[in-house]
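Re: the request from the purification team.
They wanted to know what the chain is likely to look like in 3D before they choose a buffer screen. I agreed to run a prediction and write the result into the notebook, where they can find it.
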Amino acid sequence: QGHLVESGGGLVQAGGSLRLSCTTSGIIFSFFDMGWFRQVPGKSREFVARISRDNSPEYTDSVKGRFAVSRDNAKNTVYLQMESLKPEDTAVYYCNLVNGRQPRLNSWGQGTQVTVSS
């Protein structure tokens, strides 16, 4: 069974930066496209970014030009570099294997909290 562990969140001021990490186990990491999602209380989890097994990235419109997704297959890890953070980026961020923009694993990690102050 796949296991996902997110880290790197924190409290930052608007305009600041964070780099999130997601380390996987129990899967052959290089075989899968990986994605990032985020969720705030009262709203459903939303797609943020994805990166294919051949390193092609995609982003939701609200983060284009500010976020960059990357992966290190040797470390079984996917990253999300977040720049020019805005208060509306505040959420719990999660990773998952993805098919297109849809999650593949039913079991999510604990997520990592990102809080952006104004």
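For the purification team: The mean pLDDT is 97.
Please add any questions underneath this entry.
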